[in-house]
Amino acid sequence: MQSTTKLLSRPFLWSLLVLALSIIVVQMFYATVVSPIAENALTAGGSAASRGFFVIIKDAEQQVCIIAMLWCSYLILAKAWALTQAQPLFRLDFLAGQAEQGELDLPKALNELEQSQYSEQPLLQTWIICIRRYLHTQDVQNASDAIQASVESLAVRLESGNSMIRYLIWAIPSIGFIGTVRGIGQALAQADEALAGNIAGMVDSLGVAFNSTLVALFISIFLMLLLHWLQHLQDAMVVETQAHCEKYLLKHLHA
């Protein structure tokens, strides 16, 4: 039941919705813009090996790559947005009010953190784990070890959460290579015509082969840039989480 609930969580449903919208929008764009313009360009005497933008992206492999690019971009930007939304929490000391009153009621603080609307944020989760450990052991060192373990677990969760993004970035060049294989296969099937002097069909097929790889590689480069930016934000959050706990939480526990 718990795994099913997680599978049908709001971020998962949003990602499916974005995927469906990407398919619909790209299909409409191809049907109304790309295919007519590319067909007119080819009819006017061009070939699939030409470098007109709409001719380059006209084939099915490029269409699939663009859909995957939009979906992958959403997954990256959604994760980055969630990280930026958590930034204000790093400027707060969650025990400052009790410290100013001169008494530290950790059970009360733990209950407030667990009931907070931000209780699912990694920073508050780390605070909750650390305070629980301290209440059980009454030892600051054990609480410090709990912070370290929680931060390491956070880093692993963030890394594993990028698995779909890494898969899409790997899959896009592979889709481009499928187009390359398809185009080369079509070109070889027209070898007899080329030997007879009619090379137009072979040139068009080779154009399909190289255009699909070209588009896929450009998209992959763009998505890798976004992924590295996301990983930078995630690494910064891990470091800030540990620093925040050591600066504020351990200070109160030592007091």
Automatic annotation (TrEMBL):
<dbReference type="Pfam" id="PF01618">
    <property type="entry name" value="MotA_ExbB"/>
</dbReference>
<feature type="transmembrane region" description="Helical">
    <location>
        <begin position="60"/>
        <end position="82"/>
    </location>
</feature>
<keyword id="KW-0812">Transmembrane</keyword>
<keyword id="KW-0653">Protein transport</keyword>
<keyword id="KW-1003">Cell membrane</keyword>
<keyword id="KW-1133">Transmembrane helix</keyword>
<dbReference type="InterPro" id="IPR050790">
    <property type="entry name" value="ExbB/TolQ_transport"/>
</dbReference>
<feature type="domain" description="MotA/TolQ/ExbB proton channel">
    <location>
        <begin position="136"/>
        <end position="240"/>
    </location>
</feature>
<feature type="transmembrane region" description="Helical">
    <location>
        <begin position="167"/>
        <end position="188"/>
    </location>
</feature>
<feature type="transmembrane region" description="Helical">
    <location>
        <begin position="12"/>
        <end position="30"/>
    </location>
</feature>
<feature type="transmembrane region" description="Helical">
    <location>
        <begin position="208"/>
        <end position="227"/>
    </location>
</feature>
<comment type="similarity">
    <text>Belongs to the exbB/tolQ family.</text>
</comment>
<keyword id="KW-0472">Membrane</keyword>
<keyword id="KW-0813">Transport</keyword>
<dbReference type="InterPro" id="IPR002898">
    <property type="entry name" value="MotA_ExbB_proton_chnl"/>
</dbReference>
<protein>
    <recommendedName>
        <fullName>MotA/TolQ/ExbB proton channel domain-containing protein</fullName>
    </recommendedName>
</protein>
